[in-house]
Automatic annotation (TrEMBL):
It holds the Pfam family adh_short. It comes from Longimycelium tulufanense. GO terms for molecular function: oxidoreductase activity. This is Short chain dehydrogenase. PROSITE patterns: ADH_SHORT. Keywords: Oxidoreductase. Belongs to the short-chain dehydrogenases/reductases (SDR) family. GO terms for cellular component: membrane.
Length: 230
């Protein structure tokens, strides 16, 4: 069995999660989370010591089953998420429910199920939050509410689990060039210009930096804004 640290990355099939998986692969054994099994297999083939971990995060029965047997976990990166835009007037209950379920409740439940494994290795939980977890703007009600709540969850988890040596980092990227951003721009009726946004690799580098910080440094919050065009 490998002595390398183990990381589970949700949302690894695409975007920021995929970039995080690539960035951690040289140093960590990986469990790759997502629903697209073909893409997970492909990614696992590209990366050293990576295994697919296919599950729909909103299926809490399946989640409990797939976490059984994970006894040690050094890093848990929550990157799975969704964004559906609309004013409060336009947004029906099912959108709020879906958003909260993926962006918040699934994160909470997966973390809860993996707490023994995280405690066993004084692990690190990384929450892919957003600028919308710091500021709530028109059209972003359900998404921002889920990310504000995610931030609260992270703060509580950090305080409660400090005695077990668990570290918790909330990462708040601005617009990042991924499928989610493409979909957001479509919903906004604007163009998708990847050059204007953060690269997923840049967000991944910030995640790696937080995770590899020495034990005396607990990176609790990272805010990343798009910089000047390259
Ligand atoms: N892109 C941005 O501009 C931006 C900015 C700030 C924060 N963020 C946050 O960063 C995170 C990653 O975003 P991204 O842009 O990389 O998103 P993305 O490209 O749309 O990818 C979303 C990922 O989430 C997974 N996923 C969604 N629903 C799932 C479910 N029910 N069960 C399992 N997996 C599920 C998808 O897996 P499958 O396709 O395999 O189902 C996919 O891998 C999100 O939490 C997002 O809110 C993004």
């Amino acid at each position: 069995m490998s002595s390398r640290p183990i990381a589970l990355v949700t949302g690894a099939t695409r975007g920021i999660g995929s970039a995080v998986a690539h960035a951690l692969a040289p140093t960590h054994d990986l469990l790759l989370g997502g629903r697209d099994r073909a893409r997970l297999d492909e990614l696992a083939g590209e990366l050293r010591s990576a295994r697919p971990w296919p599950v729909d995060l909103t299926d809490f029965t399946a989640l409990a089953a797939t976490t059984t047997g994970i006894e040690r976990l050094d890093v848990l990166v929550h990157s799975a998420g969704l964004a559906e835009l609309g004013t409060i007037e336009e947004t029906p209950a099912e959108v709020w429910r879906r958003t909260m379920e993926v962006n918040l409740v699934a994160v909470v439940e997966l973390t809860r199920l993996l707490l023994p494994a995280l405690r066993a290795s004084h692990g690190h939980v990384v929450l892919l939050n957003s600028g919308s977890g710091l500021r709530a703007n028109p059209n972003w009600g359900a998404y921002a509410a889920s990310k504000f709540a995610l931030r609260a969850f992270g703060d509580v988890l950090r305080a409660e689990e400090a005695e077990h040596g668990i570290r918790v980092t909330s990462v708040h990227p601005g617009r990042t060039a991924t499928d989610m951003q493409r979909s957001v721009r479509e919903q906004e009726g604007g163009e998708f210009d990847p050059g204007q946004y953060l690269r997923p690799e840049s967000v991944a580098a910030a995640v790696v930096s937080a995770v590899t910080a020495s034990r005396d440094a607990h990176v609790t919050e990272v805010v990343i804004r798009p910089g000047q065009a390259r």
